[in-house]
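User: Teach me something about this protein's shape.
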Amino acid sequence: MSNNREILKYCPNYYNIVNFDFQENDLISEKLVNIYKSYVFSISIQSDEEIEKVQELDRALSNYIADYLFRSTLQKEIVTVRVKRDNNIIRNLVDIIIKIFSNYEEYTTRKIYISKWI
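Assistant: First, the predicted structure itself:
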């Protein structure tokens, strides 16, 4: 049980993601939340690489909840992705979600200009 608490320290958005109120017929969001839940508690705390990956996944799915544009982008791209049928499909899907999120972040930076009122 203490292992779960340690893992949740690296996932500050866990409860927001798990309790996300998606539409009833939104199967993609349901699957993404299920992938998130199963991946978070399958990692090893001793592995720095897995901790970094779970933090990135937490940030990506937090953005999925908050940003409608990213949500629609991820839903469109995740459907077209092909996953190899090797020993761990969930880890492959997590890598794909993180890759889509990093591409989204890189190519859709928004410039905000603050106008001055004279």
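Now, about its shape. DSSP finds six helices and no strands in the chain. The first helix runs from residue 2 to 9. If you'd like, I can walk through any region in more detail.
User: That's plenty for now, thanks!
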